[in-house]
Write a structure and sequence with these properties.
alpha/beta; Rossmann fold; 6-stranded mixed sheet; 12 helices; binds adenosine-5'-triphosphate; binds magnesium ion
């Protein structure tokens, strides 16, 4: 059984010279609770897949083709209000830049609470406050009772990304899409955030699509991986197979392009 099945996905962006095909026939399936990595160089179409899975391509006037089936629902048949109900509840996303995701003029607790207010209108204010506090504690924010009333700029980059993750997992989504969730953070914080995400999704059996250009990140967190080039999957398989026995020359190039100290990531976990 799979929670997500993507078949022949295409994403076309309009441009002056005609449509640009950013994703060209991508297929994969994801079992509940499992983690798929999408890797590939800049412009290979990774984020376009993530945006399609979140129903967020309308703003860029993209045309989506193929099929995306989430827990038996054909995602391409959803209207805007159906998408709004699904998004943030059953499918959630964590982007690279927490500062761009968070609203700078709202307290972080209120931004998490908004998820409950929107999707769980029957919850009382007190219940929402308690749920928000417990989420902040779960994502490792110390002194959560005080931090709940902080503004984003009062928190470090790593703490802000923890807040974003708290909001994303608040309703225990079945699918979490993470698009370069640690790229904006320094290396030690990156390792902590990855470990946190790994723990949280495994605790609540959330499946995850982890988009990253960093093969070490993928090796640490993912079960399966697809390697993208120019909108096409050039290689797919279990992380162990693809990273230790790459079949495609492009995958080998990506592996060879890793900085030498990248291989030492294990050490940061202590
Ligand atoms: N909103 C958009 N409008 C037009 N073209 C776009 C848009 N978003 C992406 N593209 C184009 O689609 C292609 C794939 O872009 P995408 O952002 O999906 O790649 P990516 O693999 O996520 O790259 P990166 O690693 O730099 O984030 C690129 O050629 C890009 O220029
Ligand atoms: Mg991207």
């Amino acid at each position: 059984m799979s929670i997500l099945s993507v078949s022949g996905l295409t994403v076309d962006y309009p441009s002056r010279g005609g449509a640009v095909r950013a994703v060209d026939g991508v297929s994969f399936t994801l079992a509940p609770g499992s983690v798929l990595g999408i890797v590939g160089e800049s412009g290979s179409g990774k984020s376009s897949i993530g945006m399609a899975l979140m129903g967020l391509t309308a703003a860029s006037h993209a045309t989506i083709g193929g099929t995306m089936t989430f827990d038996g629902t054909d995602l391409l048949s959803l209207n805007r209000s159906q998408w709004r109900n699904l998004r943030g509840d059953r499918i959630a996303m964590v982007f690279q830049d927490a500062m761009a995701t968070l609203n700078p003029v709202l307290r972080v607790g209120d931004q998490i609470a908004d998820v409950f207010r929107y999707h769980r209108p029957k919850m009382s204010r007190r219940e929402i406050r308690a749920a928000t506090l417990s989420l902040l504690e779960r994502v490792g924010i110390r002194d959560a009772a005080r931090r709940i009333d902080s503004f984003p700029h009062q928190l470090s980059g790593g703490m802000r990304q923890r807040v974003v993750i708290a909001a994303a997992i608040a309703l225990k989504p079945d699918l979490l899409i993470a698009d370069e969730p640690t790229t904006a953070l320094d290396v030690t914080v990156q390792a902590q955030i990855l470990e946190l995400m790994d723990t949280l999704i495994r605790e609540q059996n959330t499946a995850m699509v982890m988009i990253s250009h960093d093969l070490d990140v993928v090796g640490d967190v993912c079960d399966q991986v697809v390697v993208m080039k120019d909108g096409v999957i050039v290689e797919a398989g279990s992380v162990d197979d693809v990273l230790s026995r790459p079949q495609h020359s492009y995958t080998r190039q990506l592996l060879d392009a890793r900085p030498i100290f990248g291989a030492g990531r294990e050490a940061q976990y202590g």
